[in-house]
Amino acid sequence: xxxxxxxxxxxxxxxxxxxxxxxxxxxxxxxxxxxxxxxxxxxxxxxxxxxxxxxxxxxxxxxxxxxxxxxxxxxxxxxxxxxxxxxxxxxxxxxxxxxxxxxxxxxxxxxxxxxxxxxxxxxxxxxxxxxxxxxxxxxxxxxxxxxxxxxxxxxxxxxxxxxxxxxxxxxxxxxxxxxxxxxxxxxxxxxxxxxxxxxxxxx
Length: 203
Description:
alpha/beta; Rossmann fold; five-stranded parallel β-sheet; 7 helices; 12% strand; globular
């Protein structure tokens, strides 16, 4: 058993990761980030899931750190066109490295053994900080950045979105308890890249 801090957005991937680590017998806590994302509704879903599972949940504010992305409202969220070039508009510069770094600091202060995040193979083409090369580099850095080394885990790094959807069902994750849409509406738009990849995976 390890004490693991999960970077938790409240979406399908990170929720499945949380369930998976708990089912494997680990002691988990969750850390979420309010970074000015237009879809901060995801934080409500993250909070509900943690309350339901009795998981300690911390929300960190990163105001004004990120800009230049469709996810932070600087440009429109691309709809319907799910090409790589179009989806690059949803890249938040250096987001994962920033979040993982903060999570490592928090994990050290709380005596956690590891930090986990839900990067998967479907993200490799569009998001540089979800690629295996990035994961290996940040994993090495985490072992060097402090007198107390922290392991970085990415259990889904070689899994497809469909694989994660299948695992979520096996673990009893209710997809309606998660939020993936990049828009900030009351209901998922069904047209953005996150909605479409989720729909295809769940089918």
